[in-house]
Amino acid sequence: xxxxxxxxxxxxxxxxxxxxxxxxxxSAGIPDSGAHPPVNFHGYAACTGGSFHRETKHALAERxxxxxxxxxxxxxxxxxxxxxxxxxTPVIVSLKETGLHxxxxxxxxxxxxxxxxxxxxxxxxxxxxxxxAAELFxxxxxxxxxxxxxxxxxxxxxxxxxxxxxxxxxxxxxIFIGTREWDIPSRNHFAAMLLAKNLCDATGEPVTVxxxxxxxxxxxxxxxxxxxxxxxxHEKEKSYxxxxxxxxxxxxxxxxxxxxxxxxxxxxxxxxxxxxxxGDSAIERIAFPxxxxxxxTFAEIGIVAHELLTxxxxxGTVFVESQWRSMEQLSFEAVQKHLEEFFIxxx
Length: 347
Description:
By secondary structure, the protein is an alpha/beta fold.
């Protein structure tokens, strides 16, 4: 039975005051169309055949349950929540920025924190894109409403062939660095580059990194002393499909991020049919438990990465396991079912 025939929920995702254009998803879309890809919070809309909005009135016009994204300062979200309640539309809230450092920054102001409490307590329910965000929501609401809070990971179009960016294993080489922010401490970008340099010295595998910080970034990269020809630096952003095509050329995707984010780096690696190593995102914990950074030191991650770079069998085993885990828990079909089961209580 096709996914289209089994859908009973079309979710209207609302990002009030956001920059992304209104978008309707009859399918996962085409990678090079220029439309926003069906990943992150757009994925919730796409997997249900729903829609994504920045105008509250357009979301309400869908006459569908609304997933309201809470952006920094929460003023737009508070107004949108009131409009949904007045329209008697089921409204579920979710933090748009869910890294632990991002949550801490957003809730550091008493006024913003008070607004957050008000929104979370008035909403019909809450979805956390990470287990930590779901737990935060759960602590804010009465214990009797625990069923109205759920951790539902952001889905990826893993069974849609147009989103398969895989490269033949014999054409893959090197390490792709999944992070790029030098100035966010929890990203540990410096440490990831240092580990990549050590792996390059030990295995001869080249390293690819995106540097969008111009001269400053290039000076920092030069200090690592990579051998000639072993560090490839991209200094301009690529379209999302071209970015995935670049990532797919590599044996592993390496990061040491400790932000507890939903996990786009790992999700991208899944679309590339690659292996992600070293981070602690929600998606990595689900799809890559044997290679993620949970309960592993940087040195231990280096040992894991070294084996993946030098053993085709080891890499193949992790790849196969990550794909079946992600199909069971992160695919459009899996998350659509999870959303259906969660939202049925609000009808």
